[in-house]
Description:
By secondary structure, the chain is of the alpha/beta class. 50% of the residues lie in helices and 7% in strands. The protein is built from 18 helices and five strands.
Amino acid sequence: MTERSQTPFTFDRIRGQARAVTRLSESVRSGRLSQAYLFHGPWGVGKTTTALTLAAALNCDGPAGERPCGTCLACRKIARFNHPDVTFMMPLYPASLWKERASKGSADEPGASPVAALLSEWVADPFHVFHWTKRPSIATEWVLEAKRESVRKTFEGRTKVIIFSGVETMGVEASNRILKMLEEPGPNTVFVLTTSRLHQVLPTIRSRCQRLAFTELPAPVIEETLVDELNVPAASATQLAALARGSLARAVMLLDENVAEVRRWALRVATLEGDALIECLSSDVLGDWRRWDARRVRHVAEVLMTWYRDVLGLQHGAAADRLVNRDARKVLGSEAKRLSVTAIGSRVKRLEALVQAVENQVSPSHALFAALAGSEAAFQAPRR
């Protein structure tokens, strides 16, 4: 039995999203459901897990007031991503992964998902975080597959549930096809769309869905989850939760990094500028950072953003126990006196641009140098 099958989707396992859970569980109990939902909020806070939990609740065979029960056959099948009435779509790279699967006839299987073959890792590990070296997307072909599913009769359950995770990754054609589906839904069908970038979703799609906002997770919730579910030592969990900026997925990704090493590197350059910074970056003092991949560069950016937010916090009278980098309180105090609010804002904006640049396939080393040295033109450096 897999770990996922032992821990199926239930509302009580969703942490830190009490408002969303309350609204959905009440809707399930009352039977007053929307035909389409749009879950929006920061990345890695439980939107997709909640979407799958709703799918389980709508097809659970347990007592009406206790759905999803997590133990019936329907709940167990959804936990293993093999329920014929639940279709799950997520961004992939490249689109040929879907086409290859479709060419083998799997797209004609009832309830088949074009990403089913990739979900075995998530079945085995409920906290698995998918990481792509290039920006993934939901292709038009997948939307056509969802369309076929939406008009079929239910096979085992009461409700067809079509889930699109990360709808902001869709192109114009795919978005328009989803809009058409939302305008002409099949019988007993519920659509659940999730996004971490609501502004990138077509306004017409937003208007067709009932929106449900998800929030950043409090650091204690992330810390507790890391300790209870992943057996992370309490001291490490505290640091990871502070660096995660409200995202459990980000905290889990940081588990695979040498966080202490990344943090030492980031904080070493945080107080440098001008010629001193350029000289340091040009020497071997900071190691071979030019070979870092996009993932590590993003983590450096995240650590630096926590640093500058701490500096800004001190300027506004934040208590020491509210600081992420409280062990560097003295240096933070000096930086708070030295840097202006404008200077801090400029650096944070460059770091945000750095994250966007590596997502858009700009060379990580070029983008990192640009963010640290203040050369925004370098964000357009040659791609990898």
